[in-house]
Specification:
- Strands 1, 2, 3, 4, 5 and 6 form a six-stranded mixed beta sheet that branches.
- The protein contains 21 helices and six strands.
- It is globular, with a radius of gyration of 26 Å.
- 65% of the residues lie in helices and 6% in strands.
- It folds into two domains: 366 residues, no CATH class; 113 residues, no CATH class.
Length: 489
């Protein structure tokens, strides 16, 4: 590595780590999906986390145990609960460098690191209590271990690492199963192409061992954990994200949309050009089929699982495929750059720089200020500071309130609308309601409308990011119904 490349690499590392630390240190309020998971961490034992999770959550057990161990050791402060995601995200950035050097080509491998350093979701997942940063890291670790096994036949350590990943990676990241399947196939292809060499038998043995260990570990994981977390509510929620097999054209369109979504998720609004570059990169690997299988195999297996309605292809669940797409795209950039005439060599820099431009703008905005999803913490603090002892509190997402306050609110979105309406007629009622979209779609809209009709007197009203806090005053004075409400609940 030359001095120029080394300096660029260090600069990208510093920038990428700074973005992730900025996201983490902002300590934005938990959003509801984080709260759903945290209630399981706070209230379930290590063994209990292997069973069904409340609020229809699904997460790999080693990730849950890591958070549970932190909670038992140092408590449930936001900084501690988000620290594993930060560590995994930073590690994912650092691992991208040696991985890209082996795959992307000596002229363009730094572009993979740049994609990773500036990726908006790569930074965002560094500050969330969710396993997506671990999905990304496990993909990279499996790819790197597999490449090391192919290059260093006599070195035992890569084989030990890959064997450990075959056993443990699915317990850290569910989609790691697809990457391990591709790794086993790639090792088999590599062994077949070198079947006449002195190490042919050990290569076939390694490929079979990695595949068998992955299958066995995944089967045990399914029996102990996944089948309990695969609830009907989750299947319904993700129903539209499974591969459309109504016709060959619909299936092809669905795959195309998913590939572009992967690119957009990794590098803001650049899904289509990234996919095009990835196809060029994949075509350049036709004479190196083991690498081609290693990088394309996870896509194929994920699409197959989606066709069988076993894994949805949507948003954050596709993040584990982003490293493969970035690596293929960087290789595509390398291929195109080498084919350009010398007088047009500058185009080889302009094209990837244009791909990174929206990500750079997003990074600049992130340094200026982190935008929270919903300011639940701030809204709850405001209510608690201004709430009288006789006030009733209704919260659209009671799980978030329970995480912050350690208790459930008086009423919530799961309470019958007529009950909330009845309370609003006689008591001061605080409503903390999530509001989505420019048209202001309220969570539990029927309840909100009933309260507005029953208690038109608004004593206080404030807006927070994604939330509306309103204090409704009673239109009549008939005494308290709070005790009866709690009795009915």
């Amino acid at each position: 590595m030359g001095r120029f490349s080394r300096n660029i690499l260090i600069a990208l590392f510093v920038l990428g780590i700074a973005l992730r630390v900025r996201q983490y240190s902002a300590f934005t309020s938990y959003w509801y999906d984080e709260a759903y998971l945290l209630l399981n961490i706070f209230h379930k034992s290590f063994i209990g986390l292997l069973g069904p999770l409340r609020d229809d959550q699904a997460a790999p057990p080693l990730f849950l145990w890591l958070l549970r161990g932190l909670y038992r050791l140092v408590g449930g402060a936001e900084g501690w609960m988000r620290l594993p995601a930060l560590a995994a995200s930073v590690a994912g950035l650092l691992v991208m460098a040696p991985l890209a050097r082996r795959i992307a080509g000596r002229h363009s491998w730094l572009w993979s690191v740049a994609f990773c350093a500036l990726g908006h979701h790569a930074a965002a997942h560094a500050g969330e209590v969710k396993p997506y940063a671990f999905d990304f890291l496990m993909t990279e670790a499996i790819l790197l271990a597999t490449l090391s096994c192919q290059h260093f036949d006599r070195n035992l350590w890569p084989k030990i690492v890959l064997s450990l990943l075959a056993v443990l990676a699915p317990w850290v990241s569910y989609p790691a199963i697809f990457v391990l399947g591709a790794a086993s196939m790639a090792l088999m292809v590599h062994a077949f192409r070198h079947r006449c060499s002195a190490h042919a038998r050990s290569r076939f043995t390694l490929a079979c061992a990695a595949g068998c260990l992955s299958i066995l570990s995944s089967f045990i994981l399914w029996q102990l954990v996944i089948r309990h977390q695969a609830t009907s509510a989750l299947r319904t929620y993700w129903a539209s994200s499974f591969l459309d097999l109504s016709s060959a054209g619909a299936a092809a369109a669905s795959i195309g949309r998913s590939l572009i979504e992967i690119g957009n998720y990794g590098t803001r609004e650049m899904g289509l050009p990234l996919v095009a570059l990835s196809l060029v990169g994949a075509a350049s690997l036709r004479h190196r089929p083991a690498r081609l299988v290693l990088l394309v195999g996870p896509f194929v297996l994920a699409f197959l699982a989606s066709a069988l309605c076993l894994y949805p292809l949507g948003g954050r669940l596709l993040f584990f495929l982003v490293p493969c797409l970035w690596l293929l795209a960087a290789r595509g950039i390398d291929v195109l750059s080498q084919r350009l005439p010398h007088r047009l060599a500058w185009v080889g820099w302009i094209l990837p720089a244009a791909l990174l431009f929206p990500a750079a703008l997003s990074a600049e905005r992130l340094f200026s200020g982190v935008t929270p999803r919903c300011q639940f913490r701030e809204a709850f603090a405001y209510v608690e500071a201004h709430r009288d002892s006789g006030d009733v509190l209704w919260v659209s997402h009671p799980q978030v309130y329970e995480v912050y306050q350690g208790r459930a609110p008086d009423l919530c979105a799961y309470s019958p609308p007529e009950m909330v309406e009845q309370v609003a007629r006689t008591r001061r009622l605080w409503m903390v309601c999530a509001v989505a979209g420019s048209r202001e779609r309220y969570t539990a809209a029927e309840t909100v409308l009933r309260v507005k009709a029953a208690s038109p007197i608004i004593l206080d009203r404030r807006r927070f990011r994604g939330l509306e806090v309103v204090l409704y005053g009673p239109s009549t004075e008939k005494g308290s119904l709070l005790s009866s409400v709690k009795g009915e609940q």
